[in-house]
């Protein structure tokens, strides 16, 4: 160390020299040696740079280097990120993952193997042939299932998600689209005609009932009232001839 030690230092240094830079740091700062060419200069930082980990002591806080295969670390024996070509597992950097694990090239970690998972089969579809459900005797019906978990690189691959089997139906003719439309139109017109006929019959019935009612009322008005029949007992009463 150069004998010229100064107390009035910059950049967080407690003591420093012109030749070696910081010699000690202010409280809570970390001391680390940075190489500049063939010379190492001491600096004081609030946190350790990448590739170093911090250790605190009563007299000084220092930054120490991680292992050679470790890019960042928490302690010397616990890595948090590995250098290229290594995979992180439980704080260690490995060239090959242990059994039961696989290398994830995206995160550069050893992760658990994930197998494919599928849903339950759907019900069988109607028996069809060339997209139709009529005009044939033998056809096919299908069922499907969905993938709910895709596998990882070393996981079990997904099985088929579609199944088909032969089916037999009672053959029936397909109704032509034009004929079916025409039949529906004719049926609709017939229904409308029947409804109109029923409406006309109801109207005629109401008119006839109204006419009969008016005729009875007119007959009652024009017919003469019947005279009251005489009391025969009064007519046959004896006449007093005493006078």
Automatic annotation (TrEMBL):
<feature type="compositionally biased region" description="Basic and acidic residues">
    <location>
        <begin position="175"/>
        <end position="219"/>
    </location>
</feature>
<dbReference type="InterPro" id="IPR051514">
    <property type="entry name" value="R-spondin"/>
</dbReference>
<feature type="region of interest" description="Disordered">
    <location>
        <begin position="173"/>
        <end position="243"/>
    </location>
</feature>
<keyword id="KW-0716">Sensory transduction</keyword>
<keyword id="KW-0325">Glycoprotein</keyword>
<keyword id="KW-0879">Wnt signaling pathway</keyword>
<comment type="subunit">
    <text>Interacts with the extracellular domain of FZD8 and LRP6. It however does not form a ternary complex with FZD8 and LRP6. Interacts with WNT1. Binds heparin. Interacts with LGR4, LGR5 and LGR6.</text>
</comment>
<dbReference type="InterPro" id="IPR006212">
    <property type="entry name" value="Furin_repeat"/>
</dbReference>
<dbReference type="GO" id="GO:0016055">
    <property type="term" value="P:Wnt signaling pathway"/>
</dbReference>
<keyword id="KW-0964">Secreted</keyword>
<protein>
    <recommendedName>
        <fullName>R-spondin-3</fullName>
    </recommendedName>
</protein>
<keyword id="KW-0358">Heparin-binding</keyword>
<dbReference type="InterPro" id="IPR036383">
    <property type="entry name" value="TSP1_rpt_sf"/>
</dbReference>
<dbReference type="InterPro" id="IPR043601">
    <property type="entry name" value="Rspo_Fu-CRD_dom"/>
</dbReference>
<dbReference type="GO" id="GO:0005576">
    <property type="term" value="C:extracellular region"/>
</dbReference>
<keyword id="KW-0677">Repeat</keyword>
<keyword id="KW-0732">Signal</keyword>
<comment type="function">
    <text>Activator of the canonical Wnt signaling pathway by acting as a ligand for LGR4-6 receptors, which acts as a key regulator of angiogenesis. Upon binding to LGR4-6 (LGR4, LGR5 or LGR6), LGR4-6 associate with phosphorylated LRP6 and frizzled receptors that are activated by extracellular Wnt receptors, triggering the canonical Wnt signaling pathway to increase expression of target genes. Also regulates the canonical Wnt/beta-catenin-dependent pathway and non-canonical Wnt signaling by acting as an inhibitor of ZNRF3, an important regulator of the Wnt signaling pathway.</text>
</comment>
<feature type="domain" description="Spondin-like TSP1">
    <location>
        <begin position="116"/>
        <end position="170"/>
    </location>
</feature>
<dbReference type="Pfam" id="PF19028">
    <property type="entry name" value="TSP1_spondin"/>
</dbReference>
<dbReference type="InterPro" id="IPR000884">
    <property type="entry name" value="TSP1_rpt"/>
</dbReference>
<dbReference type="GO" id="GO:2000052">
    <property type="term" value="P:positive regulation of non-canonical Wnt signaling pathway"/>
</dbReference>
<dbReference type="GO" id="GO:0005102">
    <property type="term" value="F:signaling receptor binding"/>
</dbReference>
<feature type="domain" description="R-spondin Fu-CRD">
    <location>
        <begin position="11"/>
        <end position="110"/>
    </location>
</feature>
<dbReference type="InterPro" id="IPR044004">
    <property type="entry name" value="TSP1_spondin_dom"/>
</dbReference>
<dbReference type="InterPro" id="IPR009030">
    <property type="entry name" value="Growth_fac_rcpt_cys_sf"/>
</dbReference>
<dbReference type="Pfam" id="PF15913">
    <property type="entry name" value="Furin-like_2"/>
</dbReference>
<comment type="similarity">
    <text>Belongs to the R-spondin family.</text>
</comment>
<dbReference type="GO" id="GO:0008201">
    <property type="term" value="F:heparin binding"/>
</dbReference>
<keyword id="KW-1015">Disulfide bond</keyword>
